[in-house]
Write a structure and sequence with these properties.
about 300 residues; alpha/beta; Rossmann fold; 5-stranded parallel beta sheet
């Protein structure tokens, strides 16, 4: 007999819960967004320690109720997978299925609110905001050079850009649609590809969040979070709207504190400038080095 995967069991449980009376609709879900390797997983795990919050880490099996969200798998092309989705892309049937599945997860975990993390959602904030008009967003930003270095390590292990580099192809398409082919031309190695992903991801999130009321989103910096992990909890609790929970601070101190010394990023700056130097400067990541970057070009 073929074994049933944990994912399949979870899907069956969600379907069963949806048939039970008393499952409440999703209320004020929280979406953690940010380029991959920016600390979003650790942040989500910390928030998951709050008894009122149900945490879901990269629930692609739920998002794929809208097939166009798939940009990783061998079926992504057939599904019409797209990097960016807007409010006009919301399909009522798919949106209802996604909402019911998220609500079922909240009930399965005995919680009241949802916290979800999927880095690619940085490109889909408009889509999510239209689907869930009361959603809240936590945007986590980390130094792009450090992020790109971490992404490069994952690329070397074959764990990053999906089946046959499908995600990378969508990133390139997106950059060219923005008139930023000059940045793509500078991407020859995994570090540079990772930096382009950071630039596009952070840019997309900042643009989309800037169109939302300020009360609906919170920006955090990775560097501040790991320097004082306990101090971030009160800010998050207040923003999300949940009661103070001491276990959250304990989890933050244990999970978010930096375990290793910061990387020496200076040798990578000349390669970073043409791809993301302008955004790195805008966010203050070049100030300490007093470096004027070469600005990423449009073509």
């Amino acid at each position: 007999m073929k074994a049933i995967s944990i994912g399949a069991v979870r899907r069956l449980l969600r379907l069963a819960v949806q048939l039970l009376p008393g499952t409440r609709p999703l209320v004020r879900p929280v979406f953690i967004v940010g380029c991959g390797r920016s600390g979003t997983t650790a942040l989500g795990q910390v928030l998951g320690r709050h008894p009122s919050l149900a945490y879901l880490n990269e629930p692609r099996d739920i998002w794929v109720y809208e097939p166009r969200t798939d940009i990783w798998s061998a079926r992504a092309t057939a599904r019409g997978g797209r990097l960016r989705l807007s409010g006009s892309d919301v399909e009522p049937v798919a949106a209802a299925r996604i909402g019911r599945a998220f609500a079922a997860e909240v009930r399965l975990q005995g919680a009241e609110r949802l916290v979800e993390k999927l880095p690619i959602n940085a490109f889909r904030i408009d889509y999510i905001a239209a689907m869930f008009p009361d959603a809240r967003f936590v945007h986590l930003i980390r130094n792009g050079i450090e992020v790109a270095t971490s992404i490069a390590e994952q690329v070397e292990l074959g764990r990053w850009f999906g089946h046959q580099d499908r995600k990378w192809c969508r990133l390139v398409e997106h950059a060219r649609e923005r008139g930023e082919a000059g940045r793509v031309a500078s991407c020859a190695v995994p570090f540079e590809r990772g930096l382009l992903e950071w630039y596009l991801s952070v840019s997309a999130a900042l643009e989309s969040l800037g169109r939302l009321p300020a009360a609906r989103w919170l920006e955090l910096r990775y560097e501040g979070m790991v320097a004082a992990p306990g101090d971030i909890c009160e800010r998050l609790e207040r923003f999300i709207g949940v009661r103070h929970e001491p276990a959250l601070r304990e989890a933050a101190v244990a999970k978010l504190a930096r375990r290793s010394a910061p990387r020496d990023l200076a040798p990578l700056l000349p390669r970073a400038g043409p791809i993301a130097g302008d955004l790195l400067a805008r966010l203050g990541y070049l100030e300490a080095l007093e470096l004027t970057p070469a600005i990423g070009g449009r073509a």
